[in-house]
Known about the structure:
By secondary structure, the chain is an alpha/beta fold. Helices cover about 35% and strands about 20% of the residues. It contains twelve helices and eight strands. The chain has an eight-stranded mixed sheet, sandwiched between helices.
Amino acid sequence: MLDPELQELLSAFPLVTEVTAEMLPIMREQSAMPVEPLLAGRAISRREVTATASDGTEIPLTVLSPADPVPGAACVYWLHGGGMILGDRFSQLDIPLEWVESLGVVVVTADYRLAPEVSGTTPVDDAYQGLLWVAEHAAELGIDSGRLVVAGISAGGGLAAGVTLMARDLGGPAIAAQLLICPMLDHRNDTASSLQYAGQPGIWTHETNRFAWNAVLGDLPAELVPAYVSPALAADLTGLPTTYVDAGSAEVFRDEDVAYASRIWAAGGQAELRVWAGGFHGFDAVFPTAALAVAARSARTRWLGGVLGS
């Protein structure tokens, strides 16, 4: 069941049962948002930089800093949502912008190439190369490389989890924390909550999730899907930084997110898990002023401030 306020707001929102290849170009065009209105009236400076992907492709990054920065600030590396098929580095950016203002962090938001134009490990590898650029340019950015947080929402949350696994396995960079907002973690799409939200219109349904994962994986055989792409497959979750995971109780990703936090605990790690009763997928990004959204955002900011000592 949905939170009553969210249910009322959602009643006037365009919903679909499944995204299709024919719909994708239109949805991309409609979801493209300029960043300037988000920055208007905020004491935040913006800088555009470029990292380089493994194959030489340029990866755009945007650096967002307090107008009066403090040397040695913490940094949040932000990865956007959209199922790895939609969005850009400015999508859902209002969420980390709150941290620039309230916690004084520097936010670096990264593009990554989208499926189906690319597939396999390309999106997560793009995200990892962007993270390496941030770590290598810490002094130039005025950030403390010991307080680097990887964060993302939905597909970006899954990529954040994948990037954190890569950083652990490939020798860095050091990550102080990972913040995973309703993360897309499991390509198998077969949990109880995934099946629960099938056959009905929604923000992100079982059918749309299947379409997105098929776009990302292409012809890759199931047994060859890497854990960096589908982090729920990771056999070993030891050695991860402190983690925040949240989800709505009424969404496809609920059970895979709960399972991921549970497995971090089982591996001896530290994780905070929040399941927001009545929340649908991405509820606080879609309706940020709803009471449940305000509570979710506030809880994240308190956790992040505590981790960073802000």
